Amino acid sequence: MPSEGSSINPFETAKKQVDIVCDLIGINGGIREMLKHPKRELSVNFPVRMDDGSYRVFSGFRVQYNMARGPCKGGIRYHPNVSLDEVRALAAWMTWKCAVVNLPYGGAKGGVICDPKHMSQGELERMTRRYASEIAPLIGPEMDIPAPDVYTDSQTMAWIMDTYSVLKGYSVPGVITGKPISLGGSEGRGEATGRGCAYVIREAAPHSKVKVKGASVAVQGFGNAGSVAAKILQEEQGAKIVAVSDTRGGIYNPAGLSVAAVEAHKKKTGSVVGFAGTKPLTHDELLAMDVDILIPAALENQITGKNAHAIRAKIVAEAANGPTTPEADQILYDRKITVLPDVLANAGGVTVSYFEWAQDIQGFFWTLKEVNDRLERVMVRSYGEVHAEAMQRKVHNRTAAYVVAIQRVVDAIKMRGIYP
Ligand code: NAD
Questions:
Q1: pLDDT given for residue 2 in this prediction
Q2: Which of 9-23, 48-62, 98-112 has the lowest mean pLDDT?
Q3: Fewer beta carbons under 10 A from the terminal one: N or C of the chain?
Q4: What is the whole-number distance in angstroms between the Cα of residue 219 and the centre of ligand 1?
């Protein structure tokens, strides 16, 4: 990834972020050390039979970062670049994300070093089932509940749910979220990240002197998170989506794009590029557009020290994880651009994962309206808490969100006390 952030060990970054917040709110000694150490880590190496009859050994991890506030929650990533330090950092960030929106969860993450683009469905299923059985001693509805992440999806979750259930001898839907509806998945889970992001934008807009109705919006990454955020901003809040992009490039129409029509075009052609009546845009041009709201919804490290001066949006809403580097964060703050940080702006996904788990445990399922109403309440409340903290401490929203989160984790640690 071409940025100043990519050469940095992500776990070192995660620990630095903890130090910054601990300095700010005066947390020292053993509790600070606890916040900078994962509670429990499992490394597994396991064989998988490949389609050609050979066996390959894969390596994977599950890191439970902190469970002071409840069972651990966090996705499973399949990628060639997965490393223990990356998983540790992602597990730390899940801890803070769950705490920002006040879910009764700690944070965890898992990953397998593999290249899923070059594996067959059969190989992926066998690898998933074996990985699930290797980490089975650590997961469970009361202990650690995985979910999808990069290159894992509802099918992967279904295999993990089935494998865990076979080992137990009965069905355990609450062991994992992001499942298909037919296996105890929740209504609204697929749209939850984008929908939550749209709610946070709506709440933040008045504080940035933006009226969402009629506001111009550019979206980098027209995938699950980005396209849903665009759709809801357009259809429910009256915003004007003027530019969107995917890996092949961007498109622009100052009069506004119909999100539904762009979606249909992407479904047919595989890309947003070439949609009728639009001008092409480069990746850099999209980020630098003169719009009210910019939604990075693709990858990490997109807004860096190099291009943060070129950003012209009034609000940057991070549907993606980690799109803004720390250097860029400060530049945007100094330029009075409102950043809605990932731990808040994309927490709608984990929030509805929590709803899915709650429904599975009760065996009692909610309507789409119930899910969306509850999601809205969580996002509105959480934005309000982060904004109040930012105003009171005169810090940017990311620091404020971390303060809210880390304070909650510290309170839980202190109330529980240290065993023995
Ligand atoms: P996705 O694969 O559905 O969509 C990603 C989109 O980004 C694709 O359309 C891809 O073409 C595009 N893209 C990739 N590189 C790009 C580039 N350089 N420029 C422009 N577009 C580019 O993935 P997703 O689930 O929407 O996830 C996107 C981001 O949101 C990730 O950072 C992810 O971690 C974060 N996120 C997603 C969820 C969720 O529930 N889906 C939850 C929390 C965070």
A1: 36
A2: 9-23
A3: C
A4: 11
320 C-alpha to center of ligand 1: Å? 6
Domain of residue 269, residue span: 192-345
- 151 and 219 share a domain? no
Question: Comparing C-alpha atoms, which of 404, 218, 221, 211 is closest to residue 316?
Answer: 218
CATH number, domain containing residue 53: 3.40.50.10860
CATH code at position 281: 3.40.50.720
If asked whether residues 241 and 324 sit together in one domain, one would say yes
Average pLDDT, the chain: 96
Ligand 1 binding pocket (C-beta < 6 A) is 193, 220-226, 245-247, 283, 297-299, 319-321, 346, 349
Task: Identify which of 138, 141, 136 has the alpha carbon closest to the alpha carbon of residue 160.
Answer: 136
Q: Model confidence over 69-118: pLDDT tens digits?
A: 999 999 999 999 999 999 999 999 999 999 999 999 999 999 999 999 99
pLDDT at 299: 86
109 an active-site residue?
Answer: yes
Mutate to test the pocket of ligand 1, among 321, 351, 355 (most ligand atoms within 8 A of CB): 321
Q: How far is the CA of 256 from the centre of ligand 1 (A)?
A: 22
Q: Give the mean model confidence (pLDDT) for residues 383-404.
A: 97
Over residues 386-397, mean pLDDT:
96
379: in domain: no
Do 293 and 161 share a structural domain? no
The residue nearest atom 18 of ligand 1, judged by CA position, is 247
Q: What is the pLDDT of residue 141?
A: 98
Say yes or no: 197 and 334 in one domain: yes
Distance from C-alpha of 63 to C-alpha of 294, rounded to nearest angstrom: 33
Residue 367 C-alpha from the chain's centroid: 24
Count how many residues are written for the chain. Answer: 420
Task: Supply the residue whose CA is at minimum distance from atom 29 of ligand 1.
Answer: 320
In this structure, are 198 and 232 located in the same domain? yes
Span 131-145, pLDDT tens digits = 999 999 999 999 999
Domain count, the chain: 2
Residue 163 sits in the same domain as residue 219: no
Residue ending a domain, among 162, 183, 204, is 183
Please identify, among 183, 200, 218, the residue that sits at the C-terminal boundary of a domain: 183
Which of the following is catalytic: 73, 109, 179, 314?
Answer: 109
Q: Which residue has the tokens 């929030």?
A: 351
Burial 78-97 (b: 16+ CB within 10 A, else e): bbeebbbebbbbbbbbbbbb
Tell me the pTM.
0.96
Distance 298 CA to ligand 1 centre (A): 4
d(CA 355, CA 361): 10
Task: Report the Cα–Cα distance between both ends of the chain, in Å, rounded.
Answer: 45
The answer, yes or no, to whether residue 29 has pLDDT greater than 60, is: yes
